[in-house]
Amino acid sequence: MICLVNYDLKSGENRSLDYQYLKEQINSLGHCLHIQKSSWLVDTDMTFEDICRSLIAYVEAEDNLIVVEVGKEYFGKGRDWIDNRLKAKEAGYFVRDDGTWWKYNSM
């Protein structure tokens, strides 16, 4: 699944560490593309619920967190990244970080 993760952490004391921990958690979800200051595209095998559960621990009640599954109808930065990953998955391939494809069962 490819999802868009967007967050807005409200300012306050020691929030820079919160940003760092949240970014690290986002990167741990799967293959990521940082498309804007607080927006990431994530290609992961996790369920939508598991993604939300893993990120909610890093935000407070006054913060904003949005997670949306992204499909073929998407416009904006990262479009080629999304297209490449969706095409590879449809063909039974996995996409490496450099964008090259390899077959799931070739390991």
Structure in words:
The chain has a single domain, classed as 2-Layer Sandwich (Alpha-Beta Plaits). It is 33% helix and 29% strand.
Helices and strands in order:
Blueprint: E1 2-8, H1 15-28, E2 31-36, E3 39-43, H2 48-56, E4 64-70, H3 79-90, E5 93-95, E6 101-103
Antiparallel strand pairs: 1-3, 1-4, 2-3, 5-6
What's this, in brief?
The chain is of the alpha+beta class and 107 residues long. The chain contains 3 helices and 6 strands. The model has no long low-confidence stretch (mean pLDDT 86).
Fraction of residues in β-strands: 25-35%
Instruction: Supply the number of helical segments.
Output: 3
Helix content: 25-40%
How would you state the average pLDDT, rounded? 86
Order of helices and strands: EHEEHEHEE
Shape descriptor reads elongated
Low-confidence stretches: none
The main sheet comes to:
4 strands, antiparallel
Structure summary, number of beta strands = 6
Structural class: alpha+beta
CATH architecture designation: 2-Layer Sandwich
At the first level of CATH, what is the class?
A: Alpha Beta
Tell me the radius of gyration: 15 Å
Q: Total domains, how many?
A: 1
Characteristics:
107 residues; alpha+beta; Alpha-Beta Plaits; four-stranded antiparallel β-sheet; two-stranded antiparallel ribbon; 3 helices; 6 strands; 33% helix; 29% strand
